[in-house]
Structures are given as structure tokens and as C-alpha cells.
Amino acid sequence: MPLSDTTGTMTLSLDDGDLHVCLDGPPDAPALLLIHGSASSARSWDQVVPLLTGTHRVIRIDLLGHGRSAKPDDRSYATPDQARRVGEALDRLGVRHAVVAGHSSGGAVATALAELRPGLVTALALVNTGPSLDSYLAPRSAAISPEQWPPSDEQIRLFASTGFSRPGYQVPQELLDEVRLMTYHTLAMTMLGTTEYLKERPLPDRLVALGKPLLVIFGADDRRWRSSSAADYRAVPGATVELLPGLGHSPILEDPPRAAAPLLAFTAVHATRAG
Fold first, then answer.
1. Which site from 53, 104, 168, 174 is most exposed, i.e. has the minimal number of CB atoms within 10 Å?
2. In the chain, what are the domains?
3. pTM for the predicted model, two decimal places
4. Phi/psi at 167 (5° precision)
């Protein structure tokens, strides 16, 4: 049975709130789930998706509190709870197996999903996901206070400045607009959720226990996480670690083809065809 034959966007109503979903590619192709990071949305993968749909059913979900999904103040934004909702969404879509890729804190959600639903996740790809809090670089960008919400374009650009290293790179206007769709509560609680998840146990330790095939892609000039910390993932048996020189924290935005190439090579080996 193919995955949901819808192409485009849809809304799934879960107990915790509505989730916005984007579906691209052939319905009967292997499923590839892309999870965005904090203060972002499914649109952060826009430039990568066309490079993947020739061989995959690409699924993107705005996590609760982000993008076009619901933003309740009375729900948990802990990483395992975000992962649980993603699993529920995949169930609704008829997805039985998927390679799961996460950018930044989305990689923590991807890991939590594999912990909660090991039979669902075939393999994991983490893009500039810090392995532990020890590898975090103190941000030099301006923080946004509750009194400044909703922020201006200039405030968001300052807040996001450490997310990029390419000289002259401008954050797309649509991504600035997506940040403004959040509430201060959902932004703060999501970032806290990631911190608590990493504090509880470093990702490499979690991934060793999972035993899933692992690809780590890391912009070598990341200004949020020490790129040398990508080597920590080599503790996971069989892990592949790819450093991308000249790129920063967001290679999926800075150079989509270079980010997509190792992901495609990895999924060619580990993807499971829908059926």
C-alpha cells in the first residue's frame, strides 16, 4: 500500500493540536522524513526537497509551535513529546518505515523518534546537530526578549546570524516570516526542551544504544556547535561523518546540493520501499 497519495500540504488534527504537513515525490517511493530545527519550519528544507523527490517520498512536518502548526501554551514542547507527535503523524499518513533526517535540534527530535519508535525509523541522518552541550558555542547573536515579540526582520536576522557562515548570505524573507508565526512561549520552551534532552544524555550515547545506521553532515564553519565535535559521533559503530568545508550551521540553506549529495548516497543504501 503506497503512502498518502497527496502531494502538497495538509493538516493533521492530533490531540495536542493541528500539525502542518508537506508531501512531495512519488507516493510509492521510500519515505524520507525531514525535521526542521528550532525557530524554523518545514520551509527550511525547501531548496533541498527538489533534489530528493526523484527517488523518495519526502515528508516534512512543522513541529508543534512552529510554522503553520498549532501553537498551544498548555502543551509540552519537550523533545520526546515532539517526537511522539511526529510518530503519530506518520501513522496517520500510513508510513511504516522511514529514513529520518533532522537539522540542528531537529536531529534531537529524530533521535527521540527512533528511541520511541525503533521499528518505524530505518536510519538516521543528522545535519549540524550538536552531540552534547559541551560542544555548544556561546551565541554572540542578540537574544529576543518577550517584550520585543513579535520581532522585526532586523532582530530576527541578528538572532539567526550564527546560523550561517557564507559571507553575504541573506536569510530568505519567508523564513523570517515563519519565525514571527511562533509565540515567544513556543520558541523558549522548544529551545529549553532541546537543552534538557541533551543534558539528560548525549546523542552519541543514545545512538549507540539504538544501533541504527547513522549519517552525520556538519558544516565545518558552524558558529553554534564546534564542528570538531562531529567526531564524537564516530563512537556509533558504522557511523559516517561528512564535514562540509566553507559551510556553517545551515548547509541545507547555504548550499543545498552539497547537503543533499551525502544524504542521497546514504538513503540509497538504507531506504525501505513503501509497501
1. 168
2. 8-270 (3.40.50.1820)
3. 0.94
4. -55, 130
